[in-house]
Inverse folding.
């Protein structure tokens, strides 16, 4: 599965024939019955019509026809979603010139792409060329052609500034965010986009996803994709919950995984994060391949009024200066109500697979990425 659908979005499947030929199937069969009954057939007809209308345009997949009322097939175009290129290398200027040519072809046919920023809509092929693999955001509008072209060139200019060679580099970006399960999750994402089962990293109470920064930096070399989430109330994630108990947060994390269009994950959790990961596996065992637990730094029970002071006092000594600075900033911004909820959610630590200090050691991080 390339992407897991949700609401009115299809599952995107990569199928391989006995002869080794590959194609992509977009299938609405697993959506809720109102979508299947009222929308799916129209959405299939609509995207098939767009593919046929854009036939012959470089960078647009060929249609392979309708599978049934709820699914259709199209040419498989290998590549990396554009947003992921910030971790696997920058793009040449020629990439954006070619993307502009594709969009000009759309404009010439009276079509306009409304969502070039989506990580699944634009990919970079192994040859470094752009391709539009999802036409769900392409619409026919009655705007002057010059205005459509101007809007699309403005969007391409933004992509150029973000992803072009010579633009800002760096490893995992903490600014990414999505809304799921009634809250806003901030997350850092790095590594190999082709990793079918990413490593989902969940931090302990009082910390943030930055504790996994060294792991995220080493993920590309290990061929793994790693995603570290700021759990509700901490870091750059909003609270959006009435309880921080693992049993209450597990379904919200499941919604977060769905929003990322990820089918299965491995979970790496520390303390409180490990408890959430265990609840997540119990709730949806088909979505969690395994859970690795790291020992918490909060081993003893603490009174609610002393919880924040205890977290500050017991911060792990293996954290780097940059990590400590970011965590201190997050602690200062954490609302008092979150600390009260955190104290209620804190439970005695159970047995752990590894000591948390493994995140401060290169060899230990590599072992975690290998799953050994």
């Amino acid at each position: 599965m390339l992407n897991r659908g949700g609401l009115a979005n299809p599952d995107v499947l990569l199928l391989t024939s006995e002869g080794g030929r590959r194609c992509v199937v977009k299938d609405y069969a697993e959506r809720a019955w109102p979508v299947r009954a009222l929308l799916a057939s129209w959405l299939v007809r609509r995207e098939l019509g767009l593919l046929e209308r854009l036939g012959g345009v470089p960078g647009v997949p060929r249609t392979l026809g309708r599978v049934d009322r709820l699914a259709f097939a199209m040419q498989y175009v290998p590549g990396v979603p554009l947003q992921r290129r910030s971790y696997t290398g920058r793009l040449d200027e020629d990439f954006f010139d070619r993307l502009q040519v594709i969009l000009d072809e759309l404009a010439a046919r009276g079509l306009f792409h409304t969502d070039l920023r989506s990580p699944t809509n634009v990919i970079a092929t192994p040859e470094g060329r752009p391709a539009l693999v999802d036409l769900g955001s392409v619409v026919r509008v009655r705007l002057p052609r010059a205005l459509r072209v101007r809007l699309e060139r403005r969007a391409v200019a933004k992509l150029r500034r973000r992803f072009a060679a010579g633009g800002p580099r760096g490893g995992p970006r903490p600014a990414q965010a999505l809304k799921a399960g009634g809250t806003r999750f901030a997350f850092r994402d790095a590594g190999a986009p082709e990793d079918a089962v990413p490593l989902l990293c969940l931090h302990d109470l009082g910390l943030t996803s930055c504790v996994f920064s060294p792991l995220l930096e080493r993920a590309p070399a290990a061929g793994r994709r790693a995603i570290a989430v700021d759990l509700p109330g901490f870091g750059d994630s909003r609270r959006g919950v009435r309880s921080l108990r693992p049993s209450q947060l597990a379904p919200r994390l499941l919604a977060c995984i769905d929003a990322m269009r990820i089918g299965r994950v491995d979970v790496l959790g520390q303390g409180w994060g490990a408890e959430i990961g265990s609840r997540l596996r119990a709730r949806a065992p088909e979505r969690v391949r395994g859970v690795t637990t790291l020992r918490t730094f909060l081993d003893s029970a603490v009174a609610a009024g002393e919880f924040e002071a205890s977290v500050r006092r017991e911060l792990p000594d293996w954290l780097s200066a940059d990590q400590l600075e970011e965590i201190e900033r997050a602690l200062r911004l954490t609302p008092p109500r979150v600390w009260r909820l955190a104290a209620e959610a804190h439970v005695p630590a159970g047995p752990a697979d590894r000591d948390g200090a493994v995140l401060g050691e290169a060899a230990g991080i590599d072992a975690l990425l290998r799953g050994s």
About this structure: The two ends are 25 Å apart (CA to CA). The longest strand covers residues 183-191. The chain has three domains: 11-75, 80-163, 176-370. Residues 33-53 form the longest helix (21 residues).
